[in-house]
User: Fold this.
Amino acid sequence: DPVLQDLKIGTAPVLSLSHKETVINTFRLMDNKQRSGIALVDDDGKLIGTTTGKDLGLFIKNPTLNVLHSPIFDYLKQVRQTQIEIKTPLIAVNPTDKVSKVVGLLAATKVHRVYVVSGAEFTLERVVSITDILGYIVAQ
Assistant:
């Protein structure tokens, strides 16, 4: 069972934003880059969260102009508190973790991507999606 650091799967650099960025700018970036998710980092660049297309859907169900100019991290905390189904919003693994662990986490949490981070600083290395894993399996 190979480890992530030995494989060339995933995307780097990781598209990320400050947790203080506004909701509207976050959704604009997702649209402009045609991404379904963006990593959120703190002032030191440490991975602290993620936003997905589902978060945009929650906004569309209850749109307000005030929300668009609030920090994205504050918005996510608010909308995720109102969700009935609790999911883990952020899954991170180490470069030395095995691919089987990544597959297990994706299946157990039903998220579409995991972030590969290094060190106690949670420094973003890359993001690995379900599509990346499937591509790797098919190539074997």
Observations:
- The longest strand covers residues 123-129.
